[in-house]
Amino acid sequence: MRSRYSAYCMKEGNYIVQTYAQEKRHEHTTEDILLFANQVEFVNLEIIDTNHDDNFQYVEFKASYLEGQQLGMLHERSRFIKEEGRWVYLDGELYPSNDKKVSRNDPCPCLSGKKFKKCHG
Question: Class assignment of domain 2-118?
Answer without folding.
Answer: alpha beta
